[in-house]
Structure formats: structure tokens, C-alpha cells
Amino acid sequence: MEYIPNIIFAIALMLGVGYFTRNVKKLIRNIKLGREVDASDSKAQRWKNMAMIALGQSKMVKRPIAGIMHVVVYIGFVIINIEVLEIIIDGLFGTHRIGLEVLPPSVYGFLIGSFEILAVLVLVAVAVFWLRRNIINVKRFLSAEMKGWPKNDGNIILYFEVVLMCLFLVMNATDTQFQELGSGNVVSQFIAPWFEGLSPSALYTIERTAWWLHILGILVFLNYLYFSKHLHILLAFPNTYYGSVEVKGKFNNLETVTNEVKLMMDPNADPFAAPAEGDVEEEPAKFGASDVMDLNQIQLLNAYTCTECGRCTSACPANLTGKKLSPRKIMMDTRDRLEEVGKNIDANGGEFKDDGKQLLGDYITNEELWACTTCNACVEECPVSINPLSIILDMRRYLVMEQSAAPMELNNMMSNIENNGAPWPYNQQDRLNWANEV
Amino acid sequence: MSEKLRVPTMAEFMAEGKEPEILFWVGSAGSYDDRAKKITKAFVKILNKANVDFAVLGSEESNTGDVAKRAGNEFLFQMQAMMNIEVLNGYGIKRIVTCDPHSFNCLKNEYPGLGGIYDVIHHTQYIKELMSKGRLTLEGNTYKGKRITFHDPCYLGRANSEYEAPRDVLKKTNATLVEMKRHKSTALCCGAGGAQMFKEPEKGNMDINILRTEDALETKPEIIATGCPYCKTMMMDGVKFKEKEGEISVLDIAEVIANS
């Protein structure tokens, strides 16, 4: 009988971690639906980016208020989770506060004391975040794409954090042994009096309940991640690693196009040449992207990493002047469509069945795509190295090269370039006329 | 500009069996657009004054294909790029300067992958270089004490992290530089990039160049300086829209320096 809690704990832990692992595998499978992309270059720079941007939060603090609050929650989250290690050991082996047995009381007290202080700081930061989202109404949280689930998601995460922090503090406050130790209860000593007068067994029950709810809550939260924008706490790391190491102005040159252009410009190429014997007739590559499978794996990782903070959108010149384009929506749409495709695959025994839908048109409209000035403000703003611009460009490529669906004025501009080597209908021979004008 | 500009072409250099120090990539706007041509001429005036042995391609130059690429037409871009690379490599060009940040970015970052590898610099960087080598000195005090605000072109600033060269050059005029709230990496686009220059904007509540002009007007400038022919057009239109063209002039840095 005495092992029942240990067994229940082990089962809960297995279920929690197991279900999470299952979803992570699904996430990786979905990302791999994208085109492969080579990111084996610049390893040192990539590690540095990850250390600075994800671990060091260097871009978060560009906006000081939200940035500093975020750093508090981030540090709180990472450090308080050391406590989870103790909880897991205690849970599995039926010990109580194993840390006290292996560490000197002063060291243990220092650790728990810092956790308690951080817990309070996290509560303060979370309160500020809640106010920003619900009362102060910071503009970037009010955009059209933030209605419904995205708004609730943001709040649910905050409530989770409040509950987890409170349970942690109550757990410490009602642990008589820990309070008597008098080391590390920097915050909980002020909460302990609220429970004065309760019988030792009642206190024990509250302590155990808080302990169990705390760890179960963490496991539930872990599994909530996959369904939430909060995935960024994990994916920010790979995402900043795989983020671009080139200057922002450099857009990729499509290799498939290069091959065709070279063939076109090669005077010795025979366009009617029969394929060499043994050559398998390859399906012509699709230019640009109309659905998530046409995007590359880094772009899909970007989509799952987006935490919908909207810094991109708040800096986007098109969005600031009332156009429909919102870089954040581009990322959310990409993620939502990818999830839809993933569910389709699950429902059809591992194979995608055409659902008559695609990212272009059903999620992202041409109007949004054509409003982009390619100014890179969104890329500059993103605190976790997401590049919405690359998705916009790939979709424009599809519109132009597969559908000839550019706005009329752009078609005129492009045929001018083709015919006269300038976007306007001027003769190339007149290109130097300016030199003779006064 | 009373003196006649000296604008030798690459073909002339070739005929004489000589090599220029640098190739001046004029770009489509700089060749044909009236407001941009003023930038081109001002820059040539600077080059002439500094006795730079430069050349242009003239009618052998064609559009870089940058705007086609941003519009999504990778085919057209690569065809333009390969044609230009053939010409540039044929002449053995090593160094290129241009007044257009879009050409600058495209030649510098996107041509190498297609076989066109050059040392490409923006004209503000080249002017800075000429000044620091003592080849170009400013005599006049045309802009002394004038309030100038500089609008960062996206393809020079954010795209290539060059924020200082234009400012360093402007400081040499002894003007008072005032910054807009959004500047350097947070600068707002003028609204012309990504092929917007060639189309009507999508439905919204304002044009981007008006918003950017408002940013500039907040600094109460006498001059809005730009470093891109498209930015210049957009800001001029914005100033005109605000009916401030009597008080505020929009000038490219090349024009500011040529007048100094």
C-alpha cells in the first residue's frame, strides 16, 4: 500500500512525458513536410545566435518594458524548474525534500529562497502582462488575427503560471518541517500564518495537495504547449540556430530557375533534345509556394515558433497604414494550415489526402502578399529570428511564375524590363542621355 | 551645373586599353527618372571634382532585375542578372559604386551566387572614402547649421546594416543632424520597396510615404536627406502632400555634397 503514491506518480509522469513526446514527434513530422534546406554552414555563428538571442534574450529587451518583464518570467521559469527535479525524485522514491539530505541546509535554503523570490517576481510580471493584454489594450494585441483562440491562449498561459507559482508558495508555506528549518522560506514565512490554527494533519493534507497539483499542473502545462503559441519556450532555441546568418537584404536565388535560365541562354543547348537514355522524366519543379509543403523546413519551424507577440506587425509599414497585411498573421496562417495538413495525415493513415484547400487563397490572400514592401522591419523586430518576409516572397513567386497573377501594373513593369531593360518604356539606347543634359 | 560632366564609358576605357578605378552603376531610375537623374549628375559632379577615374556602362547597362525578384519574378531577375554579369565579367569589373541601395543590395548579395563577384559599395560609402582619403574636401558652408534629418533606406540600413556612412558624410557639411523617432534599424520604409514603386498601394487608411513624411516633419527639418532614388521620390511626394515643399527640400546626400 505504501508504494501507491510512488506508482501513481510514476504513471502520471509517464503519461505526461509520453503524450508530450508523441506530439513532439508529430511536430517534427509536420516540419519535415517542408522542403529540405541546407543549414550546415556557419556553425559558430549559429550557436552564437542561439546563445545571444534565445538564451540571452538580446532582442526581447529592445522594447524595455515587455522585455524586462519577459526576462523575469523566463529566468523564473528556467530556475524554478530546478525544483521540479527534486519533486520528481521525491515522487518516484517516496522521499521528502531530497535536496535537504544531499545539500547543506544553507545551500538548500539559498536555492529555495531564490525560487520563492522569483515566484513572486513572476507573479508581478504575469499581472503586468495580463493588464497589457486585457486592460491597457496594447495595440498589437488587438489586431484582427488576435480574436478568439489566440487571445484566450495568451490568457490561459498567464493563469497557468499564476496557479503554478501560488501552488509552489503554498506548498512551502504549509510544510511545517521546512518552515521550522527557517532557511529559504523568505516569502512563504509570510504565507504560513494564513494557515495558523489548522491541525498538523490538515496542514499535511494541504501541503500534499499543493505538491501534487503543482507537479500535475506542470505536466498538464507541458502538454498544453503543443496546442499553444507557448511552444516558443522550446522552439526559440532551434529557431534562432536555424535563423538566417546572411545579411537581411540577401534573398535566395532559386536554383531550379538558374538551371532553366542557363539552358535558355546557352547557345549550344537544344531545347528539343530527347532526354538521354535512362533519364527518368522528372516532374517539373514548382516555382514558389502555394501551400505549406512548398515552403522549406525552416519556414515551417518559424511558424511553430511564433508566439504571436506582434512586434513584426507593429513595425510593418503596410499594417501601420491600414493594409490587410500582418506578418504575424502570415506566420499564424502557415502554422494553422500546417496543423490542418498534419491532422489530415493522421486521419488518413499517414498519407495526405487532397482537401481542396491550400495556404494561398484559403488562408493568405493575394491582397496581403502584394502589400509587402520587403522592408525587413518584421524580420528585424522578431525576438526569435522568424522571417515572415521569406514566406511572402515565396508566395509571390508562385503567383507570378506559376499563375501570372501579378497586379497589372507590375506585369507592365516586368514586360518593360524584358523588352527595354528598364521598368519604364524607355529605349535602352537612351540610357546615357542624362550625361548630355544640363 | 554649368560645367559639362565628364562621363566616360567602359567601352571607351576598353578602346584605350585602360581600366577605371571604379564602375558607376547608374541604375534604371538614375538613368531615366527626372528626380533620380539629378542624383546621378550630382554624384558625377563629385566624382569629377575628386578626379576619380570612373566609367559607366551606358547603353550596355540593363536593369539589375532587383525589382522583378522582389515582385516574385525570379526568372526575369536571373535573366537580367546573367546578362549583366556577362557584360561586367567581360570587362573584368572589380569594383562597383551605385546611388541606388536596391541595385547595391542586389549586385552585392544576389549576383555572387550567379557568378558575378564584385566589391560593391553605396555612393554614401564611396563619398565617405573619398573624404577620408583627402580626395574630396568641402569648401563651402552651404549647409552649416541647417537642420537635416536623414531617412534610412531599407536596403542600405536594415538590409545591409550600413547606418553610419550617410550620417558621417552629412556631418562633414557642419549641418545639424536631427534623428527621427524611427531611425536606423527601426526606420520606417518610404513605401516604395518590394515593387510598390510601380503599383497602386492596397486599400488602407493612409499611404506609407505620408506616414514617413510625418515622422520627418516631427523633427522640424529644413532638409530631408535620402540615399535612394525611390525614397527621394516618395519623400518629395509626401512633403508636397503636406504642402511643405516651400520650406523643406528633399535631397539625396549626393546632391547635398555636390552643393556644399
From TrEMBL, chain A:
<feature type="transmembrane region" description="Helical">
    <location>
        <begin position="65"/>
        <end position="89"/>
    </location>
</feature>
<feature type="domain" description="4Fe-4S ferredoxin-type">
    <location>
        <begin position="296"/>
        <end position="328"/>
    </location>
</feature>
<feature type="transmembrane region" description="Helical">
    <location>
        <begin position="109"/>
        <end position="131"/>
    </location>
</feature>
<keyword id="KW-0812">Transmembrane</keyword>
<dbReference type="InterPro" id="IPR036197">
    <property type="entry name" value="NarG-like_sf"/>
</dbReference>
<dbReference type="InterPro" id="IPR017896">
    <property type="entry name" value="4Fe4S_Fe-S-bd"/>
</dbReference>
<keyword id="KW-0004">4Fe-4S</keyword>
<dbReference type="InterPro" id="IPR009051">
    <property type="entry name" value="Helical_ferredxn"/>
</dbReference>
<keyword id="KW-0408">Iron</keyword>
<feature type="domain" description="4Fe-4S ferredoxin-type">
    <location>
        <begin position="361"/>
        <end position="392"/>
    </location>
</feature>
<dbReference type="InterPro" id="IPR017900">
    <property type="entry name" value="4Fe4S_Fe_S_CS"/>
</dbReference>
<dbReference type="Pfam" id="PF13187">
    <property type="entry name" value="Fer4_9"/>
</dbReference>
<keyword id="KW-0472">Membrane</keyword>
<dbReference type="InterPro" id="IPR051460">
    <property type="entry name" value="HdrC_iron-sulfur_subunit"/>
</dbReference>
<keyword id="KW-0560">Oxidoreductase</keyword>
<keyword id="KW-0479">Metal-binding</keyword>
<feature type="transmembrane region" description="Helical">
    <location>
        <begin position="209"/>
        <end position="227"/>
    </location>
</feature>
<feature type="transmembrane region" description="Helical">
    <location>
        <begin position="156"/>
        <end position="174"/>
    </location>
</feature>
<feature type="transmembrane region" description="Helical">
    <location>
        <begin position="6"/>
        <end position="24"/>
    </location>
</feature>
<protein>
    <submittedName>
        <fullName>(Fe-S)-binding protein</fullName>
    </submittedName>
</protein>
<keyword id="KW-0411">Iron-sulfur</keyword>
<keyword id="KW-1133">Transmembrane helix</keyword>
UniProtKB/TrEMBL annotation, chain B:
<keyword id="KW-0411">Iron-sulfur</keyword>
<keyword id="KW-0479">Metal-binding</keyword>
<dbReference type="Pfam" id="PF02754">
    <property type="entry name" value="CCG"/>
</dbReference>
<dbReference type="InterPro" id="IPR051460">
    <property type="entry name" value="HdrC_iron-sulfur_subunit"/>
</dbReference>
<keyword id="KW-0004">4Fe-4S</keyword>
<feature type="domain" description="Cysteine-rich">
    <location>
        <begin position="148"/>
        <end position="235"/>
    </location>
</feature>
<feature type="domain" description="Cysteine-rich">
    <location>
        <begin position="32"/>
        <end position="102"/>
    </location>
</feature>
<protein>
    <submittedName>
        <fullName>(Fe-S)-binding protein</fullName>
    </submittedName>
</protein>
<keyword id="KW-0408">Iron</keyword>
<keyword id="KW-0560">Oxidoreductase</keyword>
<dbReference type="InterPro" id="IPR004017">
    <property type="entry name" value="Cys_rich_dom"/>
</dbReference>
